[in-house]
Amino acid sequence: MKQIFFMAFIALLSLNSNSLIAQENPTEGPNFSKIDASPMDLVMYKNQDDEVVARVIYSRPQKRNREVFGKLVPYGDVWRTGANESTELTLYKDMKVADVTVNAGTYTIYTIPEENEWVVILNNDVHTWGAYEYTDKKDQVRITVPVRKSPTSIESFSMAFVPGADGANLLMGWDDRYIEVPFKTIAK
Questions:
Q1: DSSP assignment of 76-143
Q2: In sequence order, what are the beta bridge partners of 162?
Q3: Is the pLDDT of residue 6 over 50?
Q4: CB neighbours (10 Å) of residue 80?
Q5: pLDDT digits (tens, 9 = 90+) for 171-183
């Protein structure tokens, strides 16, 4: 009897939600929002055993013939490192960033771009929008890395993990520049 009641309840909810959509737009179907101009993306670092060690979720702003660094992304200001929500890093294992041990957990990646180097920040404040609420009191790690020239123009802000010494490097690139952030596996 409970199963019949439960199935009838689920069927009723299904019919009710479908009829609400149809009432809103009966000839065209559901009305989905437009695609975001800076869509979200995800990159993962897997170790040699194919275990996920780190994951980054970020939004990808577009260059669209704009001057990016120094204008759209001002030098010397804290940047959310992408668009929309702040960039989120999840470490599934303890790792070293530069020579600082970072415990497994979720962090926000902020950066302070300059012409020749960037400060890369892992911050404990998560689920934030932009860098509006940023405070250095919640910084876990701050490292400075050199800016490198990209051999090609990068239209969409992009990230990728590539193998590095004892771990992986997180590449962040846009326009004609990129940086590398070293993540090292901690030996057990």
A1: TS-B-SSSSBPEEEEESS-EEETTEEE-SEEEEEEEEE-SSEEEEEEES--S-BTTTT--GGGEEEEE
A2: 169
A3: no
A4: 23
A5: 999 999 999 999 9
Its pTM stands at 0.80
Which amino acid belongs to residue 9? F
Strands laid side by side in the 148-164 sheet: 100-102, 95-97, 167-185, 148-164
Amino acid found at 30: P
Q: In the structure, how many helices (H) and strands (E) does the chain have?
A: 1, 10
Q: Compute how many other C-beta atoms are within 10 angstroms of the C-beta atom of residue 38.
A: 16
What's the CA gap between 165 and 102, in Å, rounded?
Answer: 17
Q: How far is CA 172 from CA 33, 54, 86, 137, 168, in A?
A: 29, 15, 14, 24, 13
Residue 125: alpha-carbon gap to chain centroid: 14
3-class secondary structure, 12: helix
pLDDT for res 17: 40
